[in-house]
Amino acid sequence: MIGMITGQVQSLNAPVACVMTAGGVGYEIELPIPSFCQLALGNTVTIHTHLVVREDAHSLFGFIDKPDRDVFRKLIKINGVGAKMAAAMLSTLTAAEIKRAVDQDNDVALVRVPGIGKKTAQRIILDLKGKLQEFGSDEMIGVDGLFVEDGFDNSMQMIAEVESALIHLGYKEKEAQAAIKATQSDQITNTSDLLKAALRQLSGF
């Protein structure tokens, strides 16, 4: 099992990053959007990873924060929740928000994640009840403080990154474009903030 990778970010194509280790091996890692938004080309990063092995592919999923990986591992043990769906959940909700939805039997919050229906949301709540106690507060797992390296973002690149990320999550191109248009403002100056605003718009928050 590949549990952690440290290396230099060589390429970014939302939501996949290629990280080159000191040994000269480049790993393509798929990350939830909040983790992806913390990466910048050329930076050295440490990513907590989980390798998903299938007959047709080996896929590496990565997380900046270890608690996110821990929640991911709990999610993929649930019948009907695969790695892609678990990553989509952690792209839309923080681990603390998932815990709160489970604790409050709030299937509506989970249904807002693309690809999750009411039955799946209820199954997640049932299976995770009492299993997320270590994820007690937003302060432990929050995604505030995301950064984008100076010069990495310009307006067009920022919009393209967010649109690509939303489409990857399962939203249609027109939905993604409409959400971005509705949330653009002078106050939004980086990919992370625009993405979070667009997700709020699409989720009805």
Automatic annotation (TrEMBL):
Main location: cytoplasm
Subcellular locations according to the entry: Cytoplasm
Region (Domain II): 65-142
Keywords assigned by UniProt, alphabetized: Cytoplasm, DNA damage, DNA recombination, DNA repair, DNA-binding
Glycoprotein as UniProt keyword: no
Domain of life: Bacteria
InterPro entries recorded: DNA_helicase_Holl-junc_RuvA_I, Hlx-hairpin-Hlx_DNA-bd_motif, NA-bd_OB-fold, RuvA, RuvA_2-like, RuvA_C, RuvA_C_sf
Family: Belongs to the RuvA family.
Record comment regarding domains: Has three domains with a flexible linker between the domains II and III and assumes an 'L' shape. Domain III is highly mobile and contacts RuvB.
Protein's recorded name: Holliday junction branch migration complex subunit RuvA
Naturally occurring in which organism (per UniProt): Moraxella porci DSM 25326
Lineage: Bacteria, Pseudomonadati, Pseudomonadota, Gammaproteobacteria, Moraxellales
Gene: ruvA
